[in-house]
Amino acid sequence: MYAFTYHRATGLRQAGNMLGKLEDSKILAGGQTLLPTMKQRLASPANLIDLGKVDGLKGIELKGRSLVIGAMTTHSEVATSPVVQQAIPALAELASMIGDPAVRHMGTLGGSIANNDPNSDYPAALVGLGATVITTKRRIEADAFFTGLFETALEADEIITKVSFPVPKKAAYMKFRNPASRFALVGVFVAKRSSEIRVAVTGAGASGVFRVPAFEEALKKRFSPKSLEGLSIPATGLNSDIHGSAEYRAHLVGVMARRAVAKAG
């Protein structure tokens, strides 16, 4: 790990000022992505700004038909929250499948989505549920938030404060995980909200999370696994590595989508 300067912010304004003024700075939330990449010398920020002591960034609250979760809320807190389990059980289950207990007790919602790892679980939930990312500057729809591999729409001095998830009528997440890392080789989140149906895929796309319009249109006619029979996605633009070829991932997307619809229904 390269040398860096550690800063502990005591407020959001101070953290934002540091992020904008300090050269080559990164936010430290749970550290479950950033610290391993630094240890492997794949990242070498000169300044780390720790949000651990900043008030108001944790919490889970149901506001009308939206579930609002603070950015520094851990995966474990999401997974075990009675509020989440009641409002969006699929989101609680997704959080329970992230990494191992150590990762779930340290990793945070905000840190996960800010890194936008292509194999991460939360991006599928945000896009699948049509969530809104709330920052120190604005509100960003999930469809516009994830912009590419490890890239988001966040500006240099912008910090995620919370995420608002619309409560769906039906939702489910199915994940084919890497047995060692527990990352999603392919994960599919399916949600039905009023007349809108969303199918979001993580783990498969070379550029990160994406939606499958053909699956969504088929499910609008009838929300059933049978509606997806015979449908597939092209392997073009999908990940291919030692864990699975692009063609294999394309096949898994269809399998996981049908299982998710069956579970949600």
Walk me through this protein's architecture:
This protein folds into 2 domains: 45 residues, Uridine Diphospho-n-acetylenolpyruvylglucosamine Reductase, domain 2, CATH 3.30.43.10; 205 residues, 2-Layer Sandwich (Uridine Diphospho-n-acetylenolpyruvylglucosamine Reductase, domain 3). It contains 11 helices and 14 strands. With 265 residues, the chain is α+β, with helices and mostly antiparallel strands. The mean pLDDT is 95.
List the helices and strands and how they pair.
Elements: E1 5-8, H1 12-21, E2 25-28, H2 34-39, E3 47-50, E4 60-63, E5 66-70, H3 75-80, H4 82-87, H5 89-96, H6 101-106, H7 109-115, H8 122-129, E6 132-135, E7 139-141, H9 142-145, E8 146-148, E9 151-152, E10 160-166, E11 170-177, E12 184-193, E13 196-202, E14 210-211, H10 213-221, H11 246-264
Parallel strand pairs: 1-3, 2-3
Antiparallel strand pairs: 4-5, 5-10, 6-7, 6-10, 8-9, 11-12, 12-13, 13-14
Spans of at least 5 consecutive residues with low confidence: none
The order of strands across the largest sheet is 4-5-10-6-7
Instruction: Determine the CATH topology of the largest domain.
Output: Uridine Diphospho-n-acetylenolpyruvylglucosamine Reductase, domain 3
Total strands: the figure is 14
Largest sheet: 5 strands, antiparallel
Second rung of CATH, namely the architecture of the largest domain: 2-Layer Sandwich
Report the order of strands and helices: EHEHEEEHHHHHHEEHEEEEEEEHH
Strand percentage, roughly?
Answer: 25-35%
CATH class of the largest domain: Alpha Beta
User: Which percent range fits the helix content?
Assistant: 25-40%
Looking at the structure, what is the overall shape? Answer: globular
Radius of gyration using CA atoms only: 18 Å
Structural class: alpha+beta
Number of helices: 11
For the record, the count of structural domains works out to 2
- The average pLDDT is 95
From the N-terminal CA to the C-terminal CA, the straight-line distance is: 48 Å
